[in-house]
Structure formats: C-alpha cells, structure tokens
Design a protein that fits this description.
globular, single chain, alpha+beta, 5-stranded antiparallel β-sheet
Length: 484
C-alpha cells in the first residue's frame, strides 16, 4: 500500500523504490546521494511480522528495490495529509531552510516516534541525534531540527496520539498471498516463502543475486550500474527473521536485521552498544541484515571483526545439505570466500558470554557517524586465576581494514595468551601488529597511520579492560567507559 492506497506496480526488478515514487508524483521524496547516505529519500516502511505485530522502520528509498516492498505499507511525506505534529513543530522551530532535506528529516522522525513503545520516548537531544544520524542538512541547520523533534515528541506524548495514519496501523499481513515472481526488463525476480525454495532457485540459477536487506545490492545498481539476470529475495521468509538463543549461542537467521541482531547481542555484550551505533544509520541498520553484511565480505566491514573475535560460526546451506564453519574460515582472500556455487549463509551462530570473558571493540573513521571504517579492532579474552595469579586465556583478536579481508591476528594473540594482564604484554602485542600486517595506503588512511592506530588501540584495550595494576576491570566500569 502506498499512502493508504493499494497499488499493483509493474517495473523491472532493478527499479528502486525512490525512482518509482517520483514517477508516481511523490516528489517530496528526494534523491541526494543514491547510496543511502544523506537521508533525503527517507520514507516510512511498515510490515506485519509472523506474529502479526506491525514493524515500522525508516527506509532509504534510493537503494531499496521496489519489488522488495511487496506486501508492505509505504508512507511518504505526501501521505501525512496536512500538518502532522512533526511538520508543525518544524514550522514553529524554523527548522526548514532550503527545504531539500526537510521531507527526509520529517519521515525519519515520524518513524522514530512510531517506535516509541519499543525504543522509549524521544526525550533528549542525544536520542534525537541518534535517530537522525542518517540525515544530512546541507544548510547546517541541525539545532532547530533537534528542537522541533523534541517538541513533536512531547506533543504526541501529551495528546496520546499515534505518529502514524490509521491505514498503516491497520496494515493487513502478507500471509496467504502467493509468492511474488515475475519477469520484466529482461530480468527475473523471485521472492520465495521457504529456504527450500531458495535452494531450488539457486541450484537452477547459481549466478542469481540473493537479496536480503539490499543496502549493498542497491549500491551495485545505483553506483556500479550492474543488473543481474535473476534476483532471489529473502524478505518473505519469516522463519529467516528469527533470532533464537539457548545457553550456548544466539542463532540469527539470514533475514534478521542488523538492528534486531544488535539489540539481541546487547543483552550479553552491552559494551558493544556504542560500536553498533556507529554502524551506518538507523535506516541502514533497520534494512540491512547481519548475514548479508558478513556475506558481502568487505575488508572494512564492521560486523566481522567483532563476530570473529567472539568465535562465531556461519551455517552454509545449499540444495543437498548444510555445513557449519567458523566465520574466520569463511574469508579466504579479497572478495573470495569458502562458499560453493549455490551455497548461502542461512544462519549466524554467536556464542553466549562466558563468565570471565572481557570484550572491547573500536571503529576508527573520518566521521563519527555514517562513515566507512579506516580500521576496526575487536579483542575478546578470558581472565583466569591460578596459583601464580591472573592469566589471559582464549585470546581472540580480529582486525578489519588491515588486510585484504577481515581476519584474526595470531601473532598479536600469542603475545597475550597465557600471560598476566600487564600493560607491558599489551605493548608487546602492539609491536606484533607490525609483524602481522602490511596494510595498504588509500584515500582513507596511509599504511603508517593504520599501523600506528592499530598499535594504539591495543594499548587502549589494556586500559579499558584492566586497571593500572593489571586487575580485571568490572563489566560495569567497562560499559561506563564505552558509553561515556
């Protein structure tokens, strides 16, 4: 449904939602970057989950394939029909300047205010800034926009009014509709309803593009100008959205969003909360998937260093069976993975926290928000006590941005494994970085900067995880130092 009207669209699979919307004269939704960075194209997307609950999220229409929103509700700025409380607050606070980015800000705020029941009220400037991390104002007018967001949130709370129109709150579920499949513009699009159907389709068409959240695939179309002959979308498979947990691991399905996966992991690893907030924007985290980020295999991907340090595994599936391998073993070289034709990541298994486990992670980038990593580091270790004192065990260290693929650092790990948690040992581990890696120089950072920064982060790991005497810092103090 589009702004309350049921629409049956016809377009090639590579058509992005933004292009189609503007052809429907929904011109308030703008194209600023065509890569999900500026937020001018933001719309609100609603869908029913397997349990019937309405899920609402901001969506970057510029990189979202139109066919992937089949069965969803799409709310544009035109669909607000008059002065929505967010729009009224923007007027009162003089928050619109040139106006180009304003609809995107409005829709991002509507989405966040619609999520208040799940995420809490929008009651502080920091919360507003997090909600708008994916929206750029070219006139540098952020202060009045933040003021308007706080005023709108307060006004809706006082009135007890929903942030969404009635038609979206009453959106029917997709269940019961036949699977989407069509051909147009010389390409085919399939949205199967089961993993078995994915196996069958990939077996017949191993070169097909597997579409989950589309935050990478959309760029292949809009920037690299690539178009596949066959798309296979996972979005209609509710079973793959599940995140289960037992005493040993989190089991994250291939269609589970980054936002949902991060929320789950925060229960065991709260010190990662700030790291996850720096992973792109709310809209990207809502659309992108954890499995898709790992399958992309970028050497500067943000998820892989942390999950490798946690000894995570991936379940690879294809017609005829499954196999489970360590995530660290998935990456072989730049853009090369240990996956057979037709094999895809069905699930990601992330171990639960061990009693004596300590964890630290950092991402360095030129901008704090919405930027690709220069390098990333994750350190996981256990602190065990024997008759000689405390020793570091099960040391796992993974770097991104230091090699053609994200990988562990065995020489750096060996400098810590079995030793007392003294700063001198972390200094030795920092020196081992230069033995372990020969990073490249590019437009983001030089080789020397990456080496120096990586070594510095190893020393910071000691200071975050241990006090000056080498004693274990409490988990509470570690979390406090991260979020401060």
């Amino acid at each position: 449904m589009l702004d309350g009207e049921c629409i049956e669209a016809s377009a090639p699979p590579s058509t992005m939602l933004l292009d189609w919307l503007r052809a429907q004269r929904r011109v308030g939704t703008k194209e600023g970057c065509a890569e999900g960075d500026c937020g001018a194209c933001t719309v609100v997307l609603g869908r029913r989950d397997a349990g019937g609950a309405l899920q609402v999220e901001p969506c970057n229409a510029c990189i979202r394939p139109l066919a992937s929103v089949d069965g969803c509700g799409v709310l544009t700025v035109e669909g607000l029909h008059g002065a929505h409380p967010v729009q009224q607050a923007m007027i009162e606070c003089h928050a619109s300047q040139c106006g180009f980015c304003t609809p995107g800000f409005v829709m991002a705020l509507v989405a966040r205010l619609a999520q208040c029941e799940r995420t809490g009220p929008l009651a502080s400037r920091a919360q507003v800034e997090q909600a708008l991390a994916g929206n750029l104002c070219r006139c540098t007018g952020y202060r009045p926009i933040v003021d308007a967001a706080l005023r709108a949130g307060e006004r809706l709370a006082q009135r007890g009014e929903p942030a969404l129109p009635d038609w979206l709150l009453e959106l029917p579920p997709l269940a019961g509709e036949p699977p989407l499949g069509f051909e147009a513009g010389g390409a085919r699009f399939d949205a199967p309803r089961s993993a078995e159907d994915v196996d069958r389709l990939l077996a017949a068409s191993p070169q097909a593009w597997l579409l989950a959240g589309g935050t990478d695939v959309g760029l292949w179309v809009t920037k690299a100008l690539r178009e596949p002959a066959h798309w296979i979308a996972l979005g209609a498979i509710d079973a793959l959205r599940r995140i289960d947990a037992d005493d040993t691991a989190y089991d994250v399905g291939a269609n589970a969003s980054l936002a949902d996966a991060f929320d789950a992991l925060d229960r065991d690893y709260p010190e990662l909360a700030d790291y996850w907030l720096r992973f792109a924007s709310p809209a990207i985290r809502a659309s992108g998937t954890l499995a898709g980020n790992l399958a992309n295999g970028s050497p500067i991907g943000d998820c892989a260093p942390v999950l490798i340090a946690l000894d995570s595994q991936v379940v690879l599936r294809r017609a005829g069976g499954r196999r489970t391998i360590p995530l660290a073993a998935l990456y072989v070289d730049y853009k090369r993975q240990d996956r057979e034709p037709g094999e895809w990541i069905e699930r990601v298994l992330i171990p639960r926290r061990r009693p004596r486990q300590r964890l630290a992670a950092w991402k360095l980038s030129k901008r704090r928000e919405q930027d690709i990593s220069i390098l990333a580091l994750a350190v996981s270790l256990d602190v065990e006590r024997d008759r000689d004192g405390e020793r570091m065990r099960n040391v796992r260290i993974a770097f991104g941005g230091m090699a053609p693929f994200v990988r562990r650092a065995p020489a750096v790990e060996a400098a810590l494994e079995g030793h007392a948690p003294a700063r001198e040992r972390f200094a030795a581990a920092a020196e081992a970085v230069g033995v372990e890696f020969t990073p490249l120089s590019d437009h983001r950072a030089s080789r020397d900067y990456r080496l120096a920064a990586a070594a510095g982060l190893m020393l910071r790991a000691h200071d975050r995880l241990f006090d000056s005497a080498g004693n274990v810092a409490s988990l509470e103090s570690v979390v406090e130092s991260v979020v401060r």
